[in-house]
Design a protein that fits this description.
Layout (H helix, E strand, L loop, with lengths): L9 H18 L19 E8 L6 H8 L2 H4 L2 E8 L2 H9 L5 E5 H9 L4 E10 L4 E5 L14 E4 L4 H12 L8 E4 L2 H10 L4 E4 L3 H9 L3 E5 L6 E8 H6 L1 H20 L1 H12 L3 H7 L3 E2 L6 H16 L18 H6 L9
Parallel strand pairs: 1-2, 1-3, 6-7, 6-8
Antiparallel strand pairs: 3-10, 4-10, 4-11, 5-8, 5-9
Length: about 350
């Protein structure tokens, strides 16, 4: 059992809030952490790169760390982070040419490929097994997953929350015909549940954690552990990725350093990531054991994308009925050059 973190005083909270504000300023510009010793930067002017980043989710953590610790700058990259509240919006920015790369989960990538966008995933940078999930109100009779039968459930259709909800229903021998789905934007779900407009919602962090706190003893939460492991990635258009092989290698080296920092100095990493996504340090410490900050390209990513494609076809969320070859949408060269043992994709 994870030991409960210490309670923080008002003075501590104020200090962490100030640190968080400084981190946000650092992240949203081309910033090098002053006063720290880093290896010499490459000769020549730094190469500009814009990453559209989900700044509400811890999955972007390695990018935050690499920016704050100066690892991008060490590689000769002048990185600017564009803030978005969802990975889908971040990916849309990259597809529209407003950014070179995006931090994004698997399902938006799957839908982009199904729409014919030539995507390239350059690395998975985070996985989490207890996210997404479903949270319901006990006063509405939700005590088990089976009690979702006949209930009103808020969900953002076509997202990982929707995918996990379907998996939960199937496990309980239920279907979407046995519940009433309300398609809501992620930021609308909490209000709908708290007002009683829906009995449960299917969503992800940080919305899950916020609702758990607000509902207190009236909340019943079901995590996707054992059903789905969310892979969070860095991806971009094939045109950009393939035409910038050395740039992507620099990116990989910086992220691998950030991965090592998260493992070697977790207390400092807690502070950087909590400040970046605007959650309390206490919540970050509590959730940390469920996080995996690893720079990888694993065969399981392709299998997950294929499963999600079948789900999208079955639920008529896409007009296509064929299964793409996702190997064509994974860029292996950069990570293989930097840390070949991190690539387990069969090719």
């Amino acid at each position: 059992m994870t030991e409960k973190p210490a309670t923080f005083s008002v003075k501590d909270a104020t200090r962490y809030a100030m640190i968080g504000a400084l981190i946000l300023v650092a992240l949203l510009g081309s910033y090098v952490w002053r006063g720290q010793t880093h290896p010499a930067q490459p000769a020549g002017p730094p190469e500009p790169m814009t990453i559209a980043a989900n700044t509400r989710y811890a999955g972007t953590g390695l990018v935050f760390v690499a920016q704050v610790k100066g690892y991008f700058a060490n590689e000769g990259l002048n990185v600017t982070l564009q803030p978005y509240t969802t990975g889908k919006d971040a990916l849309d920015a990259a597809l529209a040419g407003r950014a070179e790369l995006a931090t994004v989960a698997d399902i938006p990538i799957m839908f982009a490929v199904m729409k014919g966008h030539p995507m390239s995933i350059v690395a998975t940078i985070f996985t989490e097994e207890k996210n997404p999930g479903v949270i319901g109100r006990k006063d509405k009779g939700i005590l088990t997953l089976a009690s979702l039968n006949g209930k009103r459930i808020g969900v953002t259709l076509g997202t990982s929350g929707h995918f996990v909800l379907d998996a939960f229903l199937i496990r309980e021998k239920l279907s979407t015909d046995d519940v009433t789905l309300r398609d809501l934007q992620p930021q609308e779900l909490a209000d709908a549940l708290l007002k009683g407009d829906v009995d449960a919602v299917a969503t992800w962090e940080p919305y899950l954690g916020s609702l758990r706190t607000q509902l207190g003893a009236n909340g019943m939460i079901f995590y996707s552990e054992g059903i789905y492991e969310l892979p969070f990635n860095i991806a971009g258009t094939q045109d950009y990725v393939v035409s910038h092989p050395e740039t992507i290698k620099k990116l990989m080296r910086a992220l691998v350093r950030a991965e090592r920092f998260c493992k070697d100095e977790p207390d400092a990493a807690h502070m950087i990531i909590a400040g970046a996504i605007n959650v309390s340090l206490e919540d970050m410490v509590e959730l940390w054991p469920t996080f995996e900050f690893n720079v990888t390209l694993d065969q399981s990513l392709l299998l997950t994308l294929e499963d999600e494609t079948r789900w999208a076809i079955k639920n008529k969320l896409t007009d296509r009925t064929d299964l793409p070859n996702y190997l064509h949408h994974v860029y292996l060269d950069a990570l293989e050059a930097v840390t070949p043992e991190a690539v387990t994709v069969i090719h």
